Amino acid sequence: MAKLSIVGIGPGNYENMTVKADRALRESDVIVGYTVYVDLVKEQFSGKEFLTTPMTREADRCRMAIEKAREGKNVAMVCSGDSGIYGMAALIYEIRGESAEPAIEVVPGLTAACSGGAVLGAPLTHDFAVISLSDRLTDWNKIEMRLDNAAKADLSMAIYNPKSKGRPDHLKKACDILLRTLPGDRICGVVHNIGREGEKAVTMTLEELRTYDADMFCTVFIGNSMTTVIGGKMVTPRGYRDV
Amino acid sequence: MAKLSIVGIGPGNYENMTVKADRALRESDVIVGYTVYVDLVKEQFSGKEFLTTPMTREADRCRMAIEKAREGKNVAMVCSGDSGIYGMAALIYEIRGESAEPAIEVVPGLTAACSGGAVLGAPLTHDFAVISLSDRLTDWNKIEMRLDNAAKADLSMAIYNPKSKGRPDHLKKACDILLRTLPGDRICGVVHNIGREGEKAVTMTLEELRTYDADMFCTVFIGNSMTTVIGGKMVTPRGYRDV
Fold first, then answer.
1. N- or C-end of chain A: fewer Cβ atoms within 10 A?
2. What 3-state DSSP class applies to B28?
3. Contact check, Cβ <8 Å, A93/B10
């Protein structure tokens, strides 16, 4: 029986893929995805049929994957990071609807909160929020409201899609929202190119983050009131030392 | 050069471990951890030295791991889920302090937000918060405040440690906080024993969750205002269908 696996490949390097994701890609006949993510796995899984669609054609991509699986092919749809968190799994379920065909398997992967956090140190040891600054599908007012509430709740944060060509000022605007509640010296961090060439982690204050030159391959971390820097690493204690 | 790897092993089954975590355990001389987590890897990585401490001796465990690495052993400290998110990486950095010895490598793993989400469907496709209901190291008032803010921000939530012997009422109390803001029919889900024997996912309303018999091997998911059930799966759309 053919199935459709929605596979989170993690940040992009083979090492940060799970054993299960590796198997799902190996067992697939067809690998479908956004061009950039398919390119990340093309070499490791050569000999497959590869189908790609550009960035803004998510629903087309999912329909194509479902159709291929209904034709009897084992299809793996690749997502960067996790297959659920800002990934394609929900859209696949939406488009398949109440039909039982094709069978669907969601294969989780390392989201940038995990993989980027490990590069920076341990910024998310306590409760945290994950918020995307992309307003392509979400009202900016809602994003602002979420940032504001997360700051008031003393949650650490992983901020996805901090900047892109069409959103050059989003990170600065987000910092301005956070600075209503958080002090300017709040510890923050940025990880560039997680698990890829040019991987780099930088710690800084929230005030410095406001004008930091991030790009679309960055994940941003905001500390909570306990976050500190130890040996160059961004560390949020949970409180174990005090017990 | 000996090093200390803090390894997130994911939910517990080998398949959901990353290639890098597998390698770190293979290359280690000593595997250190909480008894239950060490038991999860003992069979797959037999022939190593295993050192365990009980649940509430986290700082002892970290000191033991650092000491072993300073003696020249390659040490892998295992954490369930991710090594950073509620894991031991921060405490290792705290205890090592500004010393450069031993070298530390944080190996990320699938946190339950990813691995449990995949079992339920795709509950965290949009912005979300991760909140633990354990008040062992965190004031209950702070946990309540975070739940309240997350609900007001229309964030989906992954709730860790929903219940234990010492905290039989925490999930009910948490639902009561959420019900101040969220409707009783808000879609929720519970995953039992992610990646282990007895894995099971159940969807329900927030009102039903309030009296649900969860245990300490559960992860709870709270939907946002868009979350729905499709073909038995908990699905939070991102909005791709509408573009």
1. N
2. coil
3. no
